[in-house]
Amino acid sequence: TFVSELEPRPLWRHFDRILATPRPSKHEEAMRAFVLEVARARNLGARTDKYGNVVVTVPASKGREKAPVVVLQSHLDMVCEKNSDVTFDFAVDAIRPRRDGDYLYATGTTLGADNGIGCAAALALLAQAQEGFRPGGKGKATARKALRRAQTPFVREVAERILSPATDPEAPGP
Question: Which of 13, 39, 145, 148 is most buried, taking the most CB atoms under 10 A from its CB?
């Protein structure tokens, strides 16, 4: 859908795929398979526990092995609510997005962004984590931009950790 053309594209491409993936509570199999597919395509370690939780592991970049570990967590299912005049089966139908100015909505149902967007962000960051924190990578520039734009303590903390001289082998000394 048009969602995959929004910026930043890595985030919205994943979210667009998530919108097309049925994932009501207790029936997250397709969503779980999608996350595992993305991890395997990047040759990352991924596992599912007996409860259905998925853990994807991104190894530290060379020289950052002692950096603090960052954990991104989100849930795979969505709140399944629809308008009374809408025929929709959350077990099989894709969410139909619509845009109104700067806002994204679903047509007749919940959008599933309650943590679909969290999953999309984590998946988009997998590539950044693999590619960005190496010489010539974009990770530091992205972290600096995130720090300038940070509107939540969490984003600020993650960006500060990425840029911390204590964990950055390329940072100048005191």
Answer: 39
Q: Are 130 and 42 in contact (CB under 8 A)?
A: yes
Report pLDDT digits (tens) over 109-146: 998 777 899 999 999 988 777 765 444 456 566 666 65
Q: Which residues contact 14 (CB under 8 A, 6 or more apart)?
A: 38, 119, 120, 123, 124
On the question of a cis peptide bond just before residue 97, with omega within 30 degrees of 0, the verdict is: no
Nearest to 15 by CA among 117, 100, 115: 117
Angle CA 22–115–37, to nearest 5 = 55
CA distance 143 to 128: 10
Instruction: Supply the pTM of this predicted model.
Output: 0.75
